[in-house]
Amino acid sequence: MNITKTTPWFLLLLCLILLTVYKFQIGLDYKRVNGSISPSSEQPQEESIMFGFKPKTLFVFGDSYADTGNTPATFAASWRFPYGITFPGKPAGRFTDGRVSTDYLAKYLGLRTPIAYKWRRLVLPRKVVKNGINFAYGGAGVFETMFKVVPNASVQINFFEQLVRKKVYSQADLNSSVALFSIVGNDYITYDRLNGTSQGRPALIRRVVRHILLDVKKIRDLGVRKVWVALSPPQKCFPSLITPKGCDSNDTSTNLHNSLLREGLRKLNDERNDKSFLVFDLYNAFVSVFKNKGVPGVSKFPEPLKACCVGLKRGNTCGDVGKNGEKLFSLCKDPKSFFFWDNVHITDQGWRSVFSLLLPDSQY
Ligand SMILES: *[C@@H]1O[C@H](CO)[C@@H](O)[C@H](O)[C@H]1NC(C)=O
Ligand SMILES: *[C@@H]1O[C@H](CO)[C@@H](O)[C@H](O)[C@H]1NC(C)=O
Ligand SMILES: *[C@@H]1O[C@H](CO)[C@@H](O)[C@H](O)[C@H]1NC(C)=O
Ligand SMILES: *[C@@H]1O[C@H](CO)[C@@H](O)[C@H](O)[C@H]1NC(C)=O
Ligand SMILES: *[C@@H]1O[C@H](CO)[C@@H](O)[C@H](O)[C@H]1NC(C)=O
After folding, report:
1. Which own/partner contact pairs does 264-269 have at CB distance under 8 Å and 24+ positions apart?
2. Ligand nearest to the CA of 208
3. How far is the CA of 34 from the centre of ligand 1 (A)?
4. 175 lines ligand 3 (CB under 6 A)
5. CB neighbours of residue 44 within 10 Å
6. For residue 176, which ligand has an atom nearest its CA?
7. Which residue among the candidates 48, 64, 337, 362 is catalytic per the annotation?
8. Which of 225, 229, 360, 327 is nearest to 283 (CA)?
9. Does the Cβ of 22 fall within 6 Å of ligand 2?
10. Residue 331, exposed/middle/buried by CB under 10 A (0-12, 13-18, 19+)?
11. Which CATH number does the domain housing residue 277 bear?
């Protein structure tokens, strides 16, 4: 969910860097078609148990838990070493060492990872865009966050609406599509950073959840058949916040957010008498991983609350370098044995574990 500070020379360098990055991303995407997360090497299921039909298109809205490269390289750690070291072996705009939720969901559906919104014009075959688009940006919330330039969820949905208006997607395309909506905490991180009070928090949580419900309803109303909505993970268990005693996974703020969201989604489903909205239960997946130190048969995390990549000093985070290029972070030897990658994001193996719990009919 986190991105680092904007640099003042951002605008000057943006063009140059984007050009470099475009080339890289296209390369990456090409590789991916024939590569290890390619559907062609899999046996996609005829019908996913999760969604009840065979989705052909995936749209993603969200923050760094779902971003696959939208956030510009100039201020996102996701484009710096050691992000991406496990997959594809170099930074790829993902806030982890490898794949994120979007990649794992696409794989489950037997689809390619949808193209990041920012590259949509650069991919020639329309087929690629037909496969879906990822509108998620690291740092995004439902409201404006401390990462001011990042498009919030409403703006991401507007991008989608414009494409629907332009008939990039037919009604039939939309009717065989699913969306992942994953906004899990930047509104709260921003509130804390602005020294928000604990008395004001329940009201903020209510506003955030109300807005999430409006957002997902809008996605549904634009024609997407099913929307998978992320709950908040246990916010107090991020490595930066844990104490020597561990963490409180049963905190009232996370519980309020999640119970209001579940209740709201249930109401939306009742209104239409269909099951358009499904719960992406990050909360219980995280708690299960903490309790079992992994997922039996999938992963082992001896210290599930510790991050693989951490700043050396207060104020430093994973990926930071000093004036002379010296690393200001420490990196674990084996990211596969860590659930958390950095202070807020989970590893490739962490996401694999979460998906193995939430989509048990899948094979990872
Ligand atoms: C996959 O690789 C083969 C040969 O290496 C190539 O002919 C084909 O076009 C590639 N597929 C895509 C979709 O790029
Ligand atoms: C989202 O961002 C846009 C553009 O900055 C802003 O106009 C809008 O009010 C924001 N939406 C919400 C719900 O805060
Ligand atoms: C979408 O597809 C389902 C299943 O084929 C069908 O029942 C439904 O009427 C379709 N909805 C629209 C809006 O086309
Ligand atoms: C929040 O509080 C800290 C410590 O009291 C202070 O240094 C900081 O400037 C405050 N931030 C804002 C945005 O008010
Ligand atoms: C969480 O806390 C609430 C109130 O403190 C309690 O009623 C509930 O049983 C707890 N849930 C779990 C799973 O421990």
Report:
1. 264/209, 264/210, 264/212, 264/213, 265/213, 265/216, 265/229, 268/213, 268/216, 268/217, 268/220
2. 2
3. 6
4. yes
5. 14
6. 3
7. 64
8. 229
9. no
10. middle
11. 3.40.50.1110
Q: How many structural domains is the chain composed of?
A: 1
**Angle of the 153-165 helix axis to the 201-221 helix axis, nearest 10:** 10
The string of pLDDT tens digits covering residues 258-311 is 999 999 999 999 998 889 999 999 999 999 999 999 999 999 999 999 999 999
| Sequence letter at residue 324 | N
Domain limits for position 344: 54-358
Q: N- to C-terminal Cα distance for the chain? A: 24
H-only helix segments in 35-170: 101-109, 126-130, 153-165
- Domain presence at residue 26: no
For the CA of 143, the closest atom of ligand 2 is: 14
Q: How confident is the model at residue 245 (pLDDT cuts 50, 70, 90)?
A: confident
Beta bridge partners of 177: 57
Of all residues in the chain, what percent carry a pLDDT higher than 90? 73
Total number of residues shown for the chain: 364
With a cut of 50, say whether residue 315 has pLDDT above it: yes
pLDDT at 322: 93
The pTM (predicted TM-score) of the whole model is: 0.85
Q: Does residue 3 belong to any structural domain of this protein?
A: no
The yes-or-no answer on residue 64 being catalytic is yes
| Cα 107 from chain centroid (whole Å) | 15
Q: Is the per-residue pLDDT at 350 higher than 80?
A: yes
| Residue labelled with tokens 């430093």 | 316
| 181, amino acid identity | F
Closest by CA position to 304, among listed 312, 293, 316: 293
- The pick from 135, 144, 213 for probing ligand 2's pocket by mutation, whose C-beta has the most ligand atoms within 8 angstroms, reads 144
Q: 10 Å Cβ neighbour count for 343?
A: 18
Q: Tell how far the Cα of 24 is from the centroid of ligand 1, in angstroms.
A: 18
pLDDT at residue 37 is higher than 70: no
Report CA(136)–ligand 4 centroid distance (Å).
29
Residue 136 lies in a domain: yes
